[in-house]
Amino acid sequence: MLNNITDCEEEEGGPNSTGDVNPRESSPFIYSSAAGDVEKKNLQYDGKNMALFEEEMDTSPMVSSLLSSLANYSNLPTGSKEHEEAENNEEGARPSKKPVTAPQLGTLMGVYLPCIQNIFGVILFLRMTWMVGIGGVLGSFVIVFMCCSTTMLTAISMSAIATNGVVPAGGSYYMISRSLGPEFGGAVGICFYLGTTFAGAMYILGCIEILLIYIVPQAAVFKIEGLEGAEAEAALLNNMRVYGTIVLSLMALVVFVGVKYVNKLALVFLACVILSIVAVYAGIIKTAIDPPVFPVCLLGNRTLVSKGYDVCAKVIEIDNETVTTKLWRSFCDSESLNATCDEYFNNNNVTEIQGIPGVTSGILAENLFGNYLEKGVILEKRGIVSDVDPDSPVTSSNRYVLADITSFFTLLVGIYFPSVTGIMAGSNRSGDLRDAQKSIPIGTIAAITTTSAVYMSCVVLFGACIEGVVLRDKFGEGVSGNLVIGTLAWPSPWVIVFGSFFSTCGAGLQSLTGAPRLLQAIARDGIIPFLRVFGHGKANGEPTWALLLTASICEIGIIIASLDAVAPILSMFFLMCYMFVNLACALQTLLRTPNWRPRFKFYHWALSFLGMSLCLSLMFICSWYYAIVAMCIATCIYKYIEFCGAEKEWGDGIRGISLSAARFALMRLEEGPPHTKNWRPQLLVLVSVDAEQNVEQPRLLSLTNQLKAGKGLTIVGTTVQGTFLDNYAEAQRADQSLRKLMETEKVKGFSQVVTSNLRDGTSHLIQVGGLGGLKHNTVMVSWPRNWKQPEYHQHFRNFIEVVRETTVASLALLVPKNISSYPSNGERFTEGHIDVWWIVHDGGMLMLLPFLLRQHKVWRKCKIRIFTVAQMDDNSIQMKKDLITFLYHLRISAEVEVVEMLEGDISAYTYEKTLIMEQRSQILKQMHLTKNEKEREIQSITDSSRGSIRRKNPPTLCVQHCAEEGTSMAEKTEAESVAISNSKQVQLVHSKNASTPTSPTSPPSSATWTDSKGKNLLAVSPESGKDLFNMKPEWEHLNQSDLRRMHTAVRLNEVIMKKSKEAKLVLLNMPGPPKNRNNHTNPMDNAVYRDYPIFTDIQVMIFLGFGCLLAFFRLYGFSGMVFNFLTATFAIQWAILVQGYFQFSHDGKIHLGVNNLINAEFACAVVLISCGAVLGKTSPLQLLVMALLEVPVFAATEWAVLKYLKINDAGGSILIHLFACYFGLGVTFVLYRPRLNDGHAKETTSYQSDMLSVMGTLFLWVFWPSFNSALTLKGDDQHRAILHTFIGLSASTLTAFALSAMLNKSGKLTMADIQNVTLAGGVTVGASVDMMISPAAAYALGILGCTACMLGYKYLSPFLARRFRIQDQCGIHNLHGLTGLISCAAGICAILVASEEVYGPSLYEIFTHRAPVEGDPRLRELQLLIPGLQPGLGRTAQEQALFQVAAVFSTIGVSALGGIATGFILKLPFLAPPSDDFCFDDKLFFDVPPDYDTPLKLQLLRVVNESD
After folding, report:
1. Positive or negative CA dihedral for 36, 41, 43, 45?
2. What is the pLDDT of residues 424-478, one digit of tens each?
3. Are 453 and 282 in contact (CB under 8 A)?
4. 350: helix, coil or strand?
5. What is the C-alpha to C-alpha distance for residues 568 and 559, in angstroms, rounded to an integer?
6. Global model pTM greater than 0.90
7. Residues 6+ apart with CB under 8 A from 38
8. Mind listing the pLDDT tens digit for each residue in 611-625?
């Protein structure tokens, strides 16, 4: 239910606001003054129909009481009408107020005509023809189109803003300030004011130019006659300054005396403008019918000044006598015909052309393109050739019409743009309009359309009617000093002259009237403090002081004196204003704020951005340096308002865009963790408050300020105990207290108060502090004070939980101890040290803290000392060198010292403290007390233990006390331990306190105790120490881990106090809490649950798969399966020992696990594959010896390749398949039997043996994915390995069936092919099985491997037997050798194409040796993405591929040599090799059934019978 309604559309400020008070505008909305009056009238609420809401009547009046105010709301400012009424009152110092009549102006009189009057101005009459002549019709049309498009787009944006609610008077200033905020509003308001002021100066200069050049040239104070060049120009400018100052003074006086006269003359001035434009169009029409006689005299192609000749001829005939003319005398030294004349004059003829040939003359083609001139260049007519010597200097230049300024395109833009300004005239009068939301858009857009049509048509018509040299004649020097546009007008040029004169006068008066009121409105808003004086005026509200300032600024433009120089200045300010109008509309549209509901619907943010872009472009096109100056002025005003201006809240768009930008930034922060370079402490400061809601640890915020220096995120949080409903007021007071303290300590950040119990409140702050990606990464909490006292145990327990929670959340934790002794922000350390005890690496946090602190003035003069601890096996000298190098790379200047902590005897004090801790924990665990009972029991145990310690320590024992708290390290440990219920938690707490920076020393850890005088009280030798320990038999049963931790705490505490006793601040690491709070382990974390299923799969492959597969001979089934069983069992046991020696031996012991068994089974697979080459031709003893010799060779090769070559071989293609293949081939090469080369009678299969062999194939096929993925990385790599193996096997199976039928002459399947070739795909994907090779590549490898294997069985194996004495009995070279080589080649290709773009950071997990080396910054970046990533060798893909190639050749070479050597050993006679007759027969080694060879005998008998 919405019962608190706020007005989202109320406008604040306005022209009626004054100073800091800044009252709201008259408004009918809730909480306004009008609403307050209505509310007071309705206090007596007697109706009962709405009794449900009667309690809300005091704050939320009924809508029925507001409707009349809503309907009658008006927004009339103190405008010209009120000024006139006030001036007509002659009685009293303060005029009596008259009732304000409702506004009556409509669209035509209120918006359209005022805009027409302001847009049409001096540029149209004085510079338009010149612009067309210089820029050409096309160039001028482009300029006019750009400028008119800019104003049209601005008008569309302005219409949207003006129709969004009630429009306050004040024009663009109010639009922008209420849309973009006071900073932008003030900056643009001042720019608009300056533009209007300089516009007044421009109109005055135009008025003076018309007066002195075209009306009364004789009135010039500084005579121009007889002057040339710079002198004439200076005289003209001085005349402009004198008369401009006079006219400015007169106009200011008129405005000061009464603005009513200006308003009454406005229609007269408007009539002059319209009459002048009509006269121009009438003249253009007349030229089509009867072009006027308007001669222009040319010498050659040069335009002559009209006052320099009387007749456009060199000589004339009078009474048959040739007489020289005035023109002759201008160029010759005498009147005689023999006089010496100007060379150019002699060489060229004088011609007279028609200055206005008419609209049908075709002159438009000549004027189509521009003719830009340098200053002082003579105006020349196009199309006429003159005889001129290019080397001769120009003489008599004052006789020609010269260009007065250097012209270029951008200059024309700057000069012309003021002629399209004035579009704000309608919005400035919004208070006088009958329906502003309807009139402003229609009137403004109609006025711009009209004026744009006039301007564009004038460009074309001027170019079509007037000769080019006349157009380029700015001041009409070649046309008898006439105004060029006036020569075109009908019925008389004086219509234009006087019309333009009065229109410029009127425009100047309007500027001097509007600019002071705009300044007054800005001043009354109070956003620019130093302008407040200009908000005051006469009693009737006239802005007297603002008028004075306006006249003074306007005088600057008068002093510039050049219309062409002033025009670009005001263009800058107007363009700046228009740009921000477009920006305001675009932002409001894009932000979609709820109160943005304009009645004008024909707008779009793209149009606004286009208008803004055009404004910005035109600024730099006009004058880049003026644009920069204007932007600098606006920026200075913006920053001034931001830092010094009054705070205003107008619901502006900048606040909306700030919210949108913040939202966008927060969403970007959610995309991923910050880069290491961008990391900085984002603090959550946990403080506590007292009963009065005041902060108890204010120095925590002092430390925060010193640590942060205003940078990054800071959240200060606290907990108010109780429920939110009951303690809301206390929470608000606590929040105000936090904000006040943050302001005092100059901590920039946010406060956050949670209402709950202490434990939950702190946990909530840690969990939900911040917003989105802008969250804290560091928690600061002070060491709990008075933690020994029973009443503060809860605070200490809360501290322990904070430690645990920050660890779980992966947050850094800062614990300042004795925070009340820390320096305030006003203190300064002139010397001293900040000691850093760097015990364990924490990612750099410990090194960063002193650097950040030394940026603050409190710690700036302190030096940094870094201590690190060396143990027995460390090289202290090398550690110091490495640390100095490390600090150099970190760019941190610090002293370095390595402290050696040697192993020492554990003191009796340490034993006693550990015993107390464990006894306490055990007692609590056995008693099963309730929470309250535990706390009482804890206190009693604490008291008794303290007494026990005091009794057991000698009275004269010297214990150094801590400067801060007077407690020893072990005593702190004691207090911590009582807050916990088991020994594991005790380890956490005393370890943490062992690293507390301000911890005092404990009693000496050696067995020598001394009193304060240094007298040796008890010198204990090792033997006596043993007796001493025997006095406490319970010490022998202490937890050794706890004992070691306590010993470390005591020793470390002693060393820190010795080294850092005088340090100003000590920083050191605190060990994190145990990850396991209850000492329970997750069974699934044990490796056996992850690896044992794969181990069993490989077991099936070894004993069932290989066993059945090798039983394919009909008379060798027993041997094939049983010898496989025997050899595999022996090989696995032997491999465990040999591989354990090479790879798994530590501290003289071989460490066993499931992974060791898997590796041993891989070695066993190597032996079994090799045995396939000599199947049926060896005795069991030979097989065992072969295994005995092959396993060490394999283990040594595996160790060397992995340790030195460091290859990738997840599926074992190199180290298993290739090694086994060529080792077996080497053995069978030596054991060559010539008689078996043509086959053996028993070397056959049977139906049953083939069935058994296919069962082995199926076992191998099913479990091969486990074989290939066993040693890959768990997760995605293993997933890929399984998928690729299955796909490769599937492809090879289908291909095997197809090829078997194709290569068989009968077209039938061959069982030998099914038993072997179907497995080829598992081998070919092995080397690249865990790489991203795609399923298609795995399929292709399966097909390729199957094809090679099939062809090898059919063609290669017989060839090897005949030519190379290699009797490969099972074809291992086909199934493991050829496919292994293909697999290696595929793996090398996969390595070469592997890149980080494809793999991402996981590239360095798969190819571990390509990871960056230790110390490489890239390694640290990757370790943030992949925690636990180990440093690599920094190899490139090409280098890794070369190592793969080296591994292939070295493995083949070693395995072949080892096989040959093994073969020679197996030939020894005492190993009982079978004879050729008994090969492939079980009868030699087994008791066989009597009918085991029956099928063979029947076959032999059938053969004999057939032969008979």
Report:
1. negative
2. 877 776 666 778 788 889 999 999 999 999 999 999 999 999 999 999 988 888 8
3. no
4. strand
5. 15
6. no
7. 61, 65, 66, 69
8. 999 999 999 988 888
